[in-house]
Hints:
This protein is mostly helical. 75% of the residues lie in helices and 0% in strands.
Amino acid sequence: QGLSHADDFHYVEAAIEVADGGPAAFLRGLDTIYENRLSIVFPLAAGFAVAGVREGTVEAVALAFSLGAILCAYGLGAALHSRRAGLWAAALAAVVPQEVWLGTSILPDTPIPFYMGLSLLAFACAARHGPGDRRAAWGYAAAGAAAFLAFEARATCGVLLPILFAAAVWSLRRDRRALWIPPAAFAASVLLLWSVLGAVSGDPLVQW
């Protein structure tokens, strides 16, 4: 679909500001809801820095998010059941009308499935390791960090947190870290962002 002459133009404008003036200058003046969705704006700005400011770059970044969500669906199905289940999950994700229609549009509906899928996939992979395995701790931390990126793209993605909590309770018998590492990583991500915003703009809560 490409640019749809809707909210995507606001994200493009914000990403151009980052690419032209640098991240620090951009973070000093977060005025609109579009500029505040940093997990959408910054990947797009990175795309502009690499491939230039053009519609094809917007489509490529959006497509990367869409394909990433499909890969997460495969990984989640494979981690929870089998590779065949993963293939079915990926096939279904690939034909969801929203993915087909918005797969090349830079709107919140495009990166959010990727970030949420990445969070759940990281948790599922972590839960497969033993309680003393460091890979499990890193996986749980990645789940919390990816949940933060989804929340940063749209606040309503906070609905993911109860899902992670339910998964943590289910995993509690195997590894108690499942209960506290994801929320700790989420909180650490928030504090890191506030620290950066405070250092750059003087106001850690400039987004609010």
